[in-house]
Amino acid sequence: MIRKIIASAACCLVACLSVKAQTPEKKYVIGELPSYKVAKATEPITVDGKMDEAAWKNAEVRSLDYFYRADKPVDKQATKFRMMWDETNLYLFYECQDTSLTARETAFDARPYLDDCAEFFVVPVPDSLNMHFGFEINITKAAYDYMMFWQYYQKRNYFVKGYNPAYKVEVTTNGTINNDKDKDKGWTMEIAIPIDALSNFGRPRVGAKWAFQAVRQDRNLVDDRFRSTSTLYPIYDIRLDVHQPNRFGIMEFLDKK
Ligand SMILES: [Ca+2]
Ligand SMILES: [Ca+2]
Q1: Is the pLDDT confidence value at 17 over 60?
Q2: Confidence check: pLDDT of 12 > 50
Q3: Mean pLDDT, residues 198-202
Q4: Which Pfam families match (predicted)?
Q5: Angle CA 52–64–244, to nearest 5
Q6: Mean pLDDT score, 186-212
Q7: What is the mean pLDDT of the chain?
Q8: What is the pLDDT of residue 4?
Q9: pLDDT value at residue 25
């Protein structure tokens, strides 16, 4: 009898634990996680893939900590993301550890997202998320830029590739691109996007808030399109793709730091 009671108590405990394990994790939506504070650049920024300017020291550093399709340790390579602004441009900096520099796409407005690739999605108002601007650039500077309309028709997203603003990009690589046999160190990408390409509501005022997402694709084999993905703000389900606007974060323009 006592054995039965102990057994049923153990069953109950297991049942309780499994119920707890099934409790869904809280899914944060836009504005719930800490906003990214965009420091104002205090000097001209040269887009060369290097953080030589002292101004970059004032930029908030965030890591892309949310990984998808990441089964092996190599699928979880570290990325640091920084952003600044001035009257003319929004400046982005991606700093990526990478043991296998890989990029096959060479065409414009094609599929750099299958490669080692930095991605940035942005919209100049935080509460109107039907569309956003997108920039996806691989480590050989093959770029795909577009306006994206979320679930535009029958829940299908609509990409307007004809959006081709002028912006500056430079990449540095530490290693050899497209050689599976050696071990690389990493890459950086610096981007300057004119404010005019992002907003016709005028230049951002101090305190203005926009919505954005920063993404990295990490491909590690020349002949295999598999790549892992990491994001600054969590998107939870990669099958719904990285463009889910309600998973974006907020960026806030600061005067200085
Ligand atoms: Ca385009
Ligand atoms: Ca890689």
Answers
A1: no
A2: no
A3: 83
A4: CBM9_1
A5: 125
A6: 93
A7: 91
A8: 53
A9: 77
Whether 236 and 27 have beta carbons less than 8 Å apart is answered as yes
What distance in angstroms lies between residue 34's CA and the mean position of ligand 2's atoms? 28
* All domains of the chain in start order, with CATH: 34-253 (2.60.40.1190)
Ligand 1 ion: residues within 5 Å (CB): 109, 145, 161, 164
Q: How far apart are the CA of 48 and the centre of ligand 2, in A? A: 21
| pLDDT, tens only, 113-140 | 999 999 999 999 888 789 999 999 999 9
User: How far is the centre of ligand 2, averaged over its atoms, from the C-alpha of 235 (Å)?
Assistant: 21
Roughly how many angstroms between the first and final C-alpha of the chain, as a whole number?
A: 69
- Nearest Cα neighbor of 109 from 72, 144, 65, 57 is 144
Distance 182 CA to ligand 1 centre (A): 34
Rounded-to-integer distance, Cα 62 and Cα 81, Å: 5
- Closest listed ligand to the CA of 162: 1
Residue 96 alpha carbon to ligand 2 centre in Å: 9
Task: Give the number of the ligand closest to the Cα of residue 107.
Answer: 1
Tokens of 94: 């991606």
Rounded to the nearest angstrom, the distance between the alpha carbon of 246 and the centre of ligand 1 is: 24
What's the pLDDT tens digit per position in 162-188?
999 999 999 999 999 999 999 999 999
CA of 75 to the centre of ligand 1 (A): 28
Alpha-carbon 164 to chain mean position:
20
**Nearest ligand for residue 179 CA:** 2
Beta carbons of 155 and 133 less than 8 angstroms apart: no
